[in-house]
Amino acid sequence: MFSCKTRGFCPKCGGQMRIISFIEEPKTIDRTIGHLKLTFEAERPPPPQIVQQESLMAAEHGEYF
User: Fold this and answer.
1) Which of 15, 27, 35, 55 counts the highest number of beta carbons within 10 A?
2) Would the CA dihedral through 18, 24, 27, 29 be positive or negative?
3) DSSP state of 16
């Protein structure tokens, strides 16, 4: 998992880290968090699906909100 505290560098070797994928499936996220014995409480609910779709479509066309 990527931590903001590492600022993009591996805490063990100091090499630069990159995000190579995102986990978007809620069941997979819940299983992973449970397996790692972590807890997670969202500060606020996720935005409605339509907002996410509009953001993705705008990003594809180089538009920003």
Assistant:
1) 55
2) positive
3) B
Q: How is residue 43 written in tokens?
A: 């500060």
pLDDT tens per residue across span 11-61? 889 888 888 888 889 899 889 989 999 887 778 877 666 666 777 777 776
The total number of residues written for the chain in this structure:
65
> CB under 8 Å to 29, separation ≥6 — which residues?
23
Residue 2 pLDDT: 47
- 3-state class of 36 per DSSP? coil
Q: For the whole model, what pTM was predicted? A: 0.40
CA distances in angstroms from 10 to 5, 7, 34, 46, listed in the order given? 10, 9, 24, 29
Residue 34 contacts residue 41 (beta carbons within 8 Å):
no
